[in-house]
Amino acid sequence: MTNDVFPNRELYRFGYCAVFARGVTPAELLARAGGEDLHPVALTRTEAARIEALGEDIDEDDVPDVDFELLQGSGVLASDGPVLRAGEHGGWSFAIEPEGSYLAADDVVKSTSRETVALSLRDSESGSCWISYAEDGEVLSSFDPLFPDSDYGTRPEVLERLTGHVAAINNGERHDAYANAVRAIRQRLQCTVPPEADERRLLTIKIADGY
């Protein structure tokens, strides 16, 4: 994946999953993805990664710029589960999950698209990728970009009409299928996000036992 499409493997070298939803706040996006009873805390990507690496052994000196009492009450120190960080840019909110695939689940994509549209992108460490697009709780398109004609959505023609992603895949090299599809979809949907948007503190949750 090239570094001009966000998120990318230079930022998340072990893979990532991301979901974008139009016209909802980052807090609402996290609530739709993870539940209403979670308590987000604002963390940078580096702080979130440090917390994940240290687990329950973390102390205040490891994250000196974070309110440690707030961190402890947030649930982010739970022993297992997906970590989601959410921000916004250009009328879209985005949530990013390092390594895992929680945000690629159909139920999550449906929930995040209620009364709006949502796009889910998964790029795993193994090299497998997946793209899903939903409108108002219905997954219209869901496919592996290496096999764009095998789409498990209810109306895949909608996304193709909006973005021309199948043509973008077919006109490029096979190994660039995911990057070309993502670039076409996000440019046409106008949900492009600069990489620096992920560097600042974003609302962060951990869904305990979410896998």
Average pLDDT for all residues: 91
Written as H for each helix and E for each strand, in order along the chain, the element string is EHEHHEEHEEEHHHE
Major beta sheet, strand line-up: 2-8-3-4-1-5-6-7
Number of helices: 7
Please estimate the helix content.
25-40%
Beta-strand content: 15-25%
Indicate the multimeric state: single chain
Q: Helix/strand-derived class?
A: alpha+beta
Radius of gyration, CA atoms, in whole angstroms: 17 Å
Shape, per Cα inertia axes? globular
N-to-C CA distance: 25 Å
Largest sheet: 8 strands, antiparallel
Name the descriptors.
eight-stranded antiparallel β-sheet; 8 strands; 24% strand; 211 residues; alpha+beta
Written account of the structure:
There is one protein chain. This protein has 211 residues and is α+β, with helices and mostly antiparallel strands. Helices cover 28% and strands 24% of the residues. The chain is built from 7 helices and 8 strands, in the order E-H-E-H-H-E-E-H-E-E-E-H-H-H-E. The chain has an 8-stranded antiparallel β-sheet with strand order 2-8-3-4-1-5-6-7, sandwiched between helices. Strand 6 and strand 7 (138-143) form a beta hairpin. Helix 1 (26-34) runs antiparallel to helix 4. The longest helix has 13 residues, at 177-189. The radius of gyration is 17 Å and the shape is globular. The mean pLDDT is 91.
Question: What does this entry show, briefly?
Answer:
This protein is 28% helix and 24% strand. It is α+β, with helices and mostly antiparallel strands and 211 residues long. The mean pLDDT is 91.
